[in-house]
Every structure is written in structure tokens, then in C-alpha cells.
TrEMBL record:
PANTHER family: S-ADENOSYL-L-METHIONINE-DEPENDENT METHYLTRANSFERASES SUPERFAMILY PROTEIN. It comes from Streptoalloteichus hindustanus. Keywords: Cytoplasm, Methyltransferase, rRNA processing, S-adenosyl-L-methionine, Transferase. This is Ribosomal RNA small subunit methyltransferase G. Its EC number is 2.1.1.-. InterPro entries: rRNA_ssu_MeTfrase_G, SAM-dependent_MTases_sf. The keyword Methyltransferase applies.
């Protein structure tokens, strides 16, 4: 088994002085993840690169102080590594399954990690009412891009972002789902690579900007700066 207490090269660059917190999260996943149905048995030796660092490097996309909702957080990806790497972010972990919510609560308590945990689905009216106006929504391995846009973009303020962690199919999904993404409120999108300096296989991200809402429905706090 990988020595989870000794992170791979590059992890310190991502987590800085909060690296011990990230290492403890990796240990918790190794100790409890398989039993609690959060990761597969073959994933234990790949926790750092496939899960923890793969998620944390997405921090490159977010400006300082943004409120980010992790849609379908599951085992905590990408939300928990993101919150560890970027304590300036206001991270919300949104998850519908009770047993996974319990896991997220256990982790937050164990790590003394400042996150908000919400049980529910992004498409539920009560959830939308509570989380509307976030600066960004992010997700990993939750749904195809079209459906993810339908769920996530209503949570995001005009000018905010949907940040979807994708694999090799990312470009194909952008082409296939462009009409649906536009219908859901997306006005611009791009393919971004994160973590090239610390991962052998960098994280591929689809970044979608939400367009302006009708007059009187702008729940946002500030516009995204030009990149």
C-alpha cells in the first residue's frame, strides 16, 4: 500500500502548510473509504494522484474569496481537497445520500475543516433557494455535461462559473452538449488543464460561464474578472 502519510512530490506546492490536513484526509479515505462504499478497493493505492491532488489542483480556476458549491460531493471530491488547499474559499458540499453526508460531516469534524454541508439535490427548489447566487459550482463524476449544466448553473450568479472535472471525453461532451449548456444559461465555455506541474495526468476541466439573468433575478455578489 502507498504510504499515505508521505505525500507525493508536488503535494506541498498545492497544499502549503495545510499538507498535514490533506494527508490525514487521504488516511481517512484509506481507512474507511472502501468499507463505506466511497471508493473501490483498487483506488486505495491511487488516493493521492487520482483523488486528492486531482481535485485540489482545480483551485487554480477560482479567484480569491469565491463561494463554491460542490454538486454531488460524494466522498468529498473535489470539495474537501479544494477547501483544504484554499481556505479563502467558502465551500459548500451538496450531497443527497445520508450515509455520504455522514461521512462528510465526520471528515469535517476530524479535520476541523470549515465547510458547509447540505443534504439535497441541486435540482430541488429548496436547495436552489438556499444556494442561489454562488460564485461557482463544481462537480466530478456526477453526470454528463448537459445534465450537470441543468442542475448547476441555476445555483450560480450571472458571470459565475460551472467547473466540471472531466476526463478524456471532455471535448466530445462540449461538442455534443453545447446546445443544452446554452439552454441552461451557459454563454461561454472552455477546456482548461489544471495541475500540469504536479500531476503526471493533469486534471481536465470544462469551465462554463453563466450568462446574465433576467432583470431582478441577479443573485450574485460580483462579476468574474476577465481571464
Amino acid at each position: 500500500m502507498t504510504d499515505l502519510a508521505n505525500p507525493p512530490e508536488g503535494a506541498e506546492q498545492v497544499f502549503g502548510d495545510r499538507l498535514p490536513m490533506a494527508a490525514r484526509f487521504a488516511e481517512l479515505l484509506a481507512e474507511h473509504g472502501v468499507v463505506r462504499g466511497l471508493i473501490g478497493p483498487r483506488e486505495v493505492d491511487r488516493i493521492w494522484d487520482r483523488h486528492v491532488l486531482n481535485s485540489a489542483v482545480v483551485a487554480e480556476v477560482f479567484p480569491e474569496g469565491w463561494r463554491v458549491v460542490d454538486v454531488g460531493s460524494g466522498a468529498g471530491f473535489p470539495g474537501i481537497p479544494l477547501a483544504i488547499a484554499r481556505p479563502d474559499l467558502d465551500v459548500v458540499l451538496l450531497e443527497p445520500m445520508a450515509r455520504r453526508v455522514a461521512w462528510l460531516e465526520d471528515v469535517a469534524r476530524e479535520l476541523d475543516l470549515s465547510v458547509t454541508i447540505v443534504r439535497g439535490r441541486a435540482e430541488e427548489a429548496a436547495v436552489r433557494d438556499r444556494l442561489v447566487g454562488c460564485d461557482a459550482a463544481t462537480a466530478r463524476a456526477v453526470a454528463p455535461l448537459a445534465r450537470l449544466a441543468e442542475w448547476s448553473l441555476p445555483l450560480v450568479r450571472p458571470g459565475g462559473l460551472m467547473v466540471a472535472l472531466k476526463g478524456a471525453s471532455a471535448r466530445e461532451e462540449i461538442t455534443r452538449d453545447a446546445v443544452a449548456v446554452r439552454k441552461a444559461g451557459g454563454v461561454r465555455w472552455e477546456l482548461v488543464t489544471c495541475g500540469a506541474e504536479v500531476l503526471d495526468v493533469p486534471t481536465t476541466v470544462v469551465v462554463v460561464e453563466r450568462g446574465e439573468a433576467p432583470r431582478g433575478r441577479d443573485g450574485g455578489r460580483r462579476r468574474r474578472k476577465d481571464r
